[in-house]
Amino acid sequence: MSSFLNYFKGLYVVAEAKQNDGSIVSINLTNNSSSLTMYYHNNESTNKQFRLVFSDSSVRVGYINHNDYKEAETALQEQLQGNYTSVNEKLYLQTGIGIKTLISFPYLKQQFEGKKIIVHRAELVVTRCDESDTTKHKFPTSLFINYYDTSKGYLVTVPDYSIGANYFDGKYNKSKGEYRIRITKHLQYLIDGTSSANAINLIIGAAATNMSRTTFYGLNPSLNPEKRLRLEMYYSEIQNY
Questions:
Q1: For a 10 Å CB count at each end of the chain, is N or C smaller?
Q2: Are 205 and 141 in contact, with CB atoms under 8 Å apart?
Q3: pTM for this predicted structure
Q4: Cα gap 128→143, rounded to integer Å
């Protein structure tokens, strides 16, 4: 087997370019039905076969090329190039090593400087602005948050996620057209100074396997300001007597 693996490195499957309507195909290699069967013969017999199965330890790599978003909306192209004049109106998310949105709270700790604060509830509210765009492009059923931990050197989840998926939420509310993501503990740690992770990444859940995208209202949309990207926080200040 080791000699075969040294000779045969794997399979490289490439999709043909599509100018108009295309498709996205997901391949579950760890399914019991997935395998690679080689049919061969030797000097002794014919119709021989050897079945190679995939496991969780098998190396699998997916590569997606977004063509530098040359055909994307002008606003998205501008944001990717560092021009953020359109972020008040619309922001973007996409899976497949696509688009994430970086959110920070630069004045949060300063706002409560010298005060003892208890955060009872804090939610990031994200409202979709492409509700009609569901026929060709699947929108995400849930959103997720992580951040880069400088002490560990890699991305980690916010502490609220460890409490449980129902508490963290992030699921799409169809009647309201919005996602609510609980970040109560994360903001408490920022205010207390026990965490310096001021910037968080808003991404689509299961981004490596769930191909979807969405646009959502920005910081101050002109037509629907009530649907802006916002933080809703309920807190109490402890007074010293």
A1: C
A2: yes
A3: 0.82
A4: 12
Q: Which segments within the chain are labelled E, that is strand?
A: 35-40, 48-53, 90-94, 101-104, 116-127, 143-149, 154-157, 169-173, 178-182, 199-204, 213-217, 230-238
How much of the chain is helix, strand and coil, in % rounded to 5?
15, 30, 50
DSSP H helices, the chain, are: 2-7, 74-80, 108-111, 165-168, 184-192
Give the pairing of strands 48-53 and 169-173: unpaired
**What residue has token string 């630069």?**
106
DSSP 120: E
**What residues does 156 pair with on adjacent strands?**
147
Residue 67 tokens, joined: 């063509």
- Taking the C-alpha atoms of residue 226 and residue 241, their distance in angstroms, rounded to an integer, is 39
**CB-based contact 196:106 (threshold 8 Å):** no
